[in-house]
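Subgroup meeting minutes
Present: P.N., E.W., G.H.
Scribe: E.W.

1. P.N. recapped why we're keeping a running log of single-chain structure predictions: easier to compare across weeks, and new members can see raw inputs and outputs side by side.
2. G.H. added today's entry (126 aa).
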Amino acid sequence: MSYLVLARKWRPQRFDEVVGQRHVSLTLRNALKSDRLSHAYLFTGPRGVGKTSMARILAKALNCERQPVEEPCNECAACRSITAGHCLDVLEIDGASNRGIDDVRQLRESVKYAPSSVRRQGLHHR
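Output recorded in log:
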């Protein structure tokens, strides 16, 4: 097996595994439970607070094959592909590096298309 950074190896896979962000976890879980999701979520903060982890967990919960869910199952094909980083419909981009006009144009072009393998197309910044 290839080397994997510890932060990615031990990344939380469920909302209840995230430490120190209970208010964010609770807000996202309540939105999923009541099916009252916003059209966008902005994850901000310094390094290491769980922005990418929360965004990945939310993407899995939205696309989990066991709908409706407050927590992703981490067993279905959608959850496994998002966890492994192989899902073509969930993109992880670095907002600090992708802020130019050409980057925004490319982003606008990519969101025109329907998801290919999961129910909802996701995009999260880190």
